[in-house]
């Protein structure tokens, strides 16, 4: 039986890593992937790295070590790194027969493991010249958005900054959100709750509110994979929580947890221009009640946010000042 081993930082996990693992998987009966690093790379924490690899290779065993596992410093000697891996393999009760790498150190790594684990281990070199995927994680970290084509979409999605537009009824969320997505040449996550409300002719049940929150998050996650640095989000599960509490005086605990979802930028649209009644909205008193609820929740949750106010044109200008056509640099 061929038992393979692949070790790396995977910070971030990219197409070259996928190529290496695919090659190893095609030659093995069993494969273990180990990942560790002593450095705190942005957006590359242990949990994310595990999720990235597992989504690409759900059939493979993935073990990611973090600071609690006393990982060696990235600058430590080869012998220290190799002995750490050997010790972890013994703890995991996994004895590989083959080690797969694209690095020059691969042969010495396999020899050290052979000695330490008292078992012959063969090194298999995969595309050492990087001819198939001429990229490194270091290059990608230097310019994630410029190198996004080297990242699997589900990995790039975690580097996308989510801009959430929230506000009371008739404050221009959808209009401004779609407009901003065009300005930044990126994706727009429209409001699923409005779509379901229209489908059900305004008759939403209590269970519908949880569904709305879940579908909204699913939509964001899907669109982030094809976004361009930013994802514009027309509302958040916090809005859904408001409607659940307002209509039913309670909320599903799962919706309450979804409402804690964090966004990179939160824009609160003020209700300071005349309300436009489209037949679906309530009155001015309700609009002000909703606005004050948002302000209170944002403060209590210690969430930073920016106000935009005035006419639609004035709000567009304020948004441009917040996000000054950054798409030209990153697209």
Poorly predicted tracts of residues? 327-331
What's the main sheet like? Answer: 5 strands, parallel
Q: What is the strand arrangement across the widest sheet?
A: 3-2-1-4-5
Strand content: 5-15%
Total of DSSP H or I helical runs spanning 4+ residues? 14
CATH architecture level-2 label of the largest domain: 3-Layer(aba) Sandwich
Please give a structural write-up.
One of its GO terms (molecular function) is catalytic activity. Residues 162-315 form the NadR/Ttd14 AAA domain. The protein is of the alpha/beta class and 331 residues long. It has helices spanning 15-27, 46-56, 78-92, 106-117, 137-142, 153-156, 173-183, 192-199, 206-224, 237-248, 253-258, 284-300, 312-322, 327-330, and strands spanning 3-8, 30-35, 61-64, 98-101, 122-125, 161-167, 187-189, 230-234, 265-269, 306-308. It has two domains: 3-144, HUPs (Rossmann fold); 160-330, P-loop containing nucleotide triphosphate hydrolases (Rossmann fold). The chain has 14 helices and ten strands. It has a five-stranded parallel sheet with strand order 3-2-1-4-5, sandwiched between helices.
